[in-house]
Write a structure and sequence with these properties.
About 25% of the residues lie in helices and about 25% in strands. By secondary structure, the chain is α/β, with parallel strands linked by helices. The protein has three domains: about 5-60 and about 75-225, 3-Layer(aba) Sandwich (Phosphoenolpyruvate Carboxykinase, domain 1), CATH 3.40.449; about 230-285 and about 350-540, Phosphoenolpyruvate Carboxykinase, domain 3, CATH 3.90.228.20; about 290-345, Phosphoenolpyruvate Carboxykinase, domain 2 (Beta Complex), CATH 2.170.8.10. It has an eight-stranded mixed β-sheet with strand order 1-6-7-8-10-9-4-5, sandwiched between helices. Helix 2 packs antiparallel against helix 4 (about 145-155) and helix 8 packs antiparallel against helix 9. The chain is globular and about 70 Å long.
Length: about 550
């Protein structure tokens, strides 16, 4: 079988006595020697990458691939949205699930008691690399799940000279093997935004570590007048100009692919999250990338493919038989992942060299009437930012996969009232104008089971991004939605031109009535959805006709 394996195909777990001796030999210390919010049995403090790799290789669910990297099979294969709660006694301030402060404190005590008998790892680093705005962040996690510590260490920007004065602003306390009885799936992610501590129970999926810090960082950025965006960033040279593009989109919509696909020797800067500040500055968050591996091929995504296969990368739930991995086998999960360093991407750039953003691309994996590209203006841009329409993928778990979703800002990790996102976005857009585009990375004319539908492939999307940067698209007004659609895009010709104008595609196929019904339904649903955000600026809510 090609799926990740258990049992005799994986290494046997070391005995507890062997593990304890190994921990003592490798620098575990009494928790009393380190100022921590919890008191473990012992702590390995700021382990070196080589040590985390050794500990990962000892895990019974870890295997080494023929490329020299490690591949860990987890019990939980995606984010646990239904188990994620903000700790607060004022639930009206938040759009997601909440739990009372007393219940949060009860679960914190339960976790602290568990940790008292466990060996733990502490990984420190920064979210962001600009000294003017970088956030000291700490992960405290069970040593039995060293791969998560190693992956997080790759994503954090490193400390300078092992800073003794390091004082974390954000902390994630992570017990993958502690059951949270009574919560959905017996799992819990409890985000205490006031104390800036997130506690994770009973999930061994790395994404909960990564998002645990970034979710809290979202509020920190908002409190400083900016907006955290679930976005990639790239610099596209055009003549003597360097055009900076931000790419927002839900996991699985092509955000990473769009960021790393090259146009005019473009430089990827950031893969997943960034901050847009009132002065127009763009701040990075991560020193690496947490990329989906499903369908990964060197021909279509060479930069990501080569980075994923480096010995220093960490794989999670990638299909493996013997030492060979298979990015197309989804018998265990379609949400296989890899973490790698940004330095492993050829020509990667640095956000500290960016003065402001020129372009914002809103990715939408649609299957009917959204064109390959549309140009948005003013409040209309903020409306489509708020709509955050897409087709859910395995990254969001079974509850989202395949479903049509609306996620404001395509950011499921914004922990406050989503109205604040839309209002702040329009405020920043007015202060620092940039071009905003909607891009469909899915299909037009129906799903995969509709023979007459057409796929917007990586090649077509790349041609769109190049043409946007170069300003070479010819535009005309769309009579149905009021935005501008392309009459031509260099690099997209022949039948591919049908991707630009869905109305014409449906008409050529004699499906005008079907098209009209979709338009009427979409307009009504969008108006109702935007009006559901009571604090959203009126201009935004009324800009979708």
């Amino acid at each position: 079988m090609g799926r990740p394996a258990r049992g005799d195909r994986l290494k046997q777990a070391p005995s507890e006595a062997d593990a304890r001796n190994a921990y003592k030999e490798r620098g575990y210390v009494a928790s009393s020697m380190i100022a921590l919010p919890v008191k473990p049995r012992s702590v390995l403090f700021r382990p070196a990458p080589e040590e985390l790799r050794r500990l990962t290789e000892r895990m019974p669910n870890c295997r080494t691939t023929r490329h020299g990297n490690v591949n860990v099979q987890t019990r939980v294969a995606s984010r646990s949205k239904s188990s994620t709660f903000v700790v607060t006694d004022d639930p009206g301030l938040h759009s997601g699930l909440t739990m009372s402060r007393s219940e949060g404190e009860r679960m914190a005590r339960l976790q602290d008691e568990y940790i008292a008998s466990r060996d733990m790892l502490v990984v420190d680093g920064y979210i962001g690399n600009d000294e003017a705005f970088r956030t000291p962040t700490r992960l405290i996690i069970e040593a039995a799940n060293a791969n998560i510590a190693a992956m997080q260490q790759i994503l954090y920007y490193p400390l300078e000279n092992a800073e003794a004065s390091f004082d974390p602003e954000l902390t994630v306390i992570y017990t993958p093997n502690l059951v949270a009885a009574g919560f959905p799936s017996d799992r819990l992610i409890a985000a205490d935004l006031e104390r800036r501590i997130t506690r994770v129970f009973n999930s061994d999926y790395f994404g909960e570590s990564k998002k645990g810090g970034l979710r809290m960082w979202n509020k920190l950025v908002y409190d400083r007048g900016g907006l955290a965006m679930h976005a990639g960033c790239k610099i596209i040279p055009v003549g003597d100009r360097r055009r900076v593009a931000l790419i927002i989109g839900m996991s699985g919509t092509g955000k990473t692919t769009t960021t790393f696909t090259r146009q005019n020797d473009s430089q990827p800067v950031q893969d997943d999250f960034l901050a847009l500040m009132p002065d127009g500055r763009v701040h990075a968050t991560e020193n690496g990338c947490f990329a989906k591996t499903f369908g990964l091929a060197e021909r279509t995504e060479p930069a990501i493919y080569r980075a994923v296969l480096k010995p220093s990368s960490y794989l999670e739930n990638v299909s493996q038989t013997g030492a060979d991995i298979d990015f197309f086998d989804t018998s265990y999960t379609q949400n296989g992942r890899a973490v790698f360093h940004m330095s492993d991407i050829e020509g990667a750039g640095d956000a500290r060299g960016i003065r402001k953003a020129d372009l914002l691309l809103i990715l939408n994996r649609n299957e009917n009437v959204i064109p390959a590209v549309a140009r948005l203006h003013g409040a209309q841009a903020a409306a489509y930012f708020m709509l955050g329409e897409t087709r859910g993928t395995s990254a969001g778990g079974a509850e989202e996969a395949g479903r049509f979703l609306r996620i404001p800002g395509t950011n499921p990790f914004f922990p406050l009232d989503h109205s604040l996102q839309g209002n702040r976005f329009l405020e920043l857009l007015r202060k620092n104008p940039m071009e905003v585009y909607l891009m469909n990375t899915g299909r037009i004319g129906g799903g995969e089971d509709e023979a007459r539908s057409m796929k917007v492939g990586i090649e077509q999307s790349s041609a769109v991004v190049k043409a946007i940067a170069e300003g070479s698209i010819r535009w005309e007004r769309d009579p149905d939605f009021g935005y501008e659609i392309a009459s031509s895009v260099p690099g997209i010709g022949g039948e591919g031109e049908q991707l630009l104008q869905p109305r014409a595609l449906y008409a050529r196929q004699g499906r005008q009535d079907e098209y009209a019904a979709i338009i009427e339904r979409l307009k009504a649903e969008r108006r109702e959805y935007l009006r559901s955000f009571q604090a959203l600026e009126r201009d935004i809510a009324e800009s979708v006709s």
